[in-house]
Structure formats: C-alpha cells, structure tokens
Amino acid sequence: MRYQISGRQIDIGEALTTHVKAELGETVEKYAQRPTDAVVIFSRNGHELVCEATIHLSTGLNAQAKGHATEIYAAFESCREKMDKQLRRYKRRLRDHHRDRTAPVEFDGGSAYILAAEEQEDAEPDTLTPMIIAEMETKVPSITVGEAVMQLELAGQRMLVFRNEGHGGVNVVYRRDDGNIGWIDPRNSK
Length: 190
Known about the structure:
Layout: E1 2-7, H1 14-31, E2 35-45, E3 48-57, E4 62-69, H2 72-89, H3 91-100, E5 106-115, E6 132-143, H4 145-155, E7 159-164, E8 170-175, E9 181-184
Parallel strand pairs: 1-2, 6-7
Antiparallel strand pairs: 2-3, 3-4, 5-6, 7-8, 8-9
C-alpha cells in the first residue's frame, strides 16, 4: 500500500510516519483486501491537532475518518479507531463486494463546477447566468445502488452521483435531513 503522510504547517517526523504506516496498515488489512493507497494529513485547529485519513481500495471505494486531540499521536489514534469502526461495520459487504465484482469499478469523467454566491439577495442580478468560479474534473463510478450507499457512508459524504450498473443511467444517493438515505433514479420517474 502506498502512503502519503503530510502535515499542514506541521513537521511530521520519521517516528510518526513509521507509526502511522504500521498501525494503519494493520487496521486496513484486517478488513479490506488489496488497499491501494492511503492519504493521511495532520493539521492544527486552534489548540487541537487534527488527523484526516482517506483510504482508497482497489474496488473503487474510499473510506474516510477524522480524529481530534491535543497531542498528535492521540489525534492519529482517534482517527484510526474511527476508521477501524467504519471498516468493521462494512467488513461483510466489503468482502462480498470483492467476490461479486470480477473487474474493478469503472469511472467516467465529468465536470464539476462551483458557482459564485450572490452577495446582494434583495437586488435583481444583471444576468440570470451564474458566475462560475471553479471548474474541475471529477470521477463518476459505475456501481450498484447498494455499493453507492456504502460509499456514501464510508466516505462520510452528503451526496454521491453514480452510474447505475443495472441500467447505465445516472443516479444520485444523498443523506436526508431526517437521517435516512434518499435515492434519485430519473429512469423510474416516467
């Protein structure tokens, strides 16, 4: 597994890097076979230290966790425990996912845009075309609805756009305000 361990305005020593590789590698190998890489970022938020970890699995799924503490090793341990809990919760589905899928998840390219917010809400805008302040490429996975919900949970996202393997159409799963998961399938809206 490839590791990318870095700090935002924090120096990461060799001892911490070795500790992160050993502990995170052990945690991930218990639950997920064939992890490809891990990104671990340490940062400071006021008096607390924050550790954010993202693990990319060969199946296209990502697991994400975040930990806070006043010491850097404690922040990593908090993050590792959350990652362990997530992966343990989805262990059966992760292993079943490997058996059912013979080929890795396919990704289609797509464009993602960030639109500028209007500063004056009362005034009528000059044009009804919103100003685009950022444009970037994003990946849209071709997965089943169950895998999309699992990816939503593992990555801690609020919404996921995916191509439904069942019929090839674009679908969306999202976390509703009431805590449930919503699924938008335009193909069934007729």
